Amino acid sequence: MSYKIIVDGIQHKFSSAHFIVGHDKCGRLHGHNFHVAVEFGGPLDPRYNFVVDFIDVKNAIKAEVDKLDHRILIPTASKDLVLKESKDNLDFTFSGKRYSVPRDDVCLLPLPAVTSELLAKHFHDVLSQRFKGFKIKVRIGETSSTFAEYGE
Fold first, then answer.
1. pTM (2 decimals)?
2. CATH number for the domain including 51?
3. How high is the pLDDT of residue 87?
4. Which of 11, 46, 73, 108 is the residue whose CA sits 20 to 30 A from 30?
5. Which of 150, 139, 116 lies closest to 16, judged by CA?
6. What is the reported pLDDT for 1?
7. Residue 45 DSSP code
8. Phi first, then psi: what are they for 53, rounded to 5°?
9. Segments of the chain scoring below 70 in pLDDT
10. What are the helix (H) ranges across the chain?
11. What is the SS3 assignment for 58?
12. Given this model, what pLDDT does residue 143 score?
């Protein structure tokens, strides 16, 4: 039998701007208050009788959330996006639009698009690297009624 823990707290939210290249409405720069919830499944650690330490999981989620919070999320693997970095600015163009923003206001993500689905996979990949051997599921919510999941 396998045990499961769930970490789902208000402290695991981030506010970010993004866009979806080519989409009529979501192709405009806009923002969300994203919320992250994570499930870890596995056997009990015989030393402490828990699956994984809640504190370690919360700290790992917070570290990634902090990178994304109050940033413009840019998908560097988008084939329809052109990026040009200078010392202090990042210029990006897509769909005939050109933006120039301070580099500190941006988080570059190695994704083809910034969607809830791909953000869930991104968090899953980050957590899977740190916590090997667990079944991990990540849920990313854009609103209180819409979310995406990735994982086992």
1. 0.94
2. 3.30.479.10
3. 87
4. 11
5. 116
6. 57
7. B
8. -70, 125
9. 1
10. 54-68, 116-130
11. helix
12. 86
Residue 101 belongs to a domain = no
Q: Contact, 120 vs 140, CB < 8 A?
A: yes
40 within domain boundaries: yes
Q: Which domain holds residue 145?
A: 3-71+116-151
| Distance set, CA 19 to CA 9, 27, 32, 46, 92 (Å) | 26, 5, 11, 46, 12
At 137, phi and psi to the nearest 5? -125, 135
Measured CA to CA, the distance from residue 79 to residue 44 in angstroms comes to 44
Rounded to the nearest 5 degrees, what angle is found at the Cα of 33, between the Cα atoms of 27 and 37? 115
How confident is the prediction for the chain on average, in pLDDT?
Answer: 95
Residue 134: both structure tokens together: 């667990």
Position 122 in a domain? yes
Q: Is residue 89 part of a domain?
A: no
The residues carrying an active-site annotation are 26, 70, 142
Q: Please give the structure tokens belonging to residue 149.
A: 């999941």
Q: How far, in Å, CA of 143 to CA of 141, rounded?
A: 5
Phi-psi region of 86 (alpha: psi -120 to 50; beta: other; left: phi over 0): beta
C-alpha 117/C-alpha 140 separation (Å) is 7
- Domain count across the chain: 1
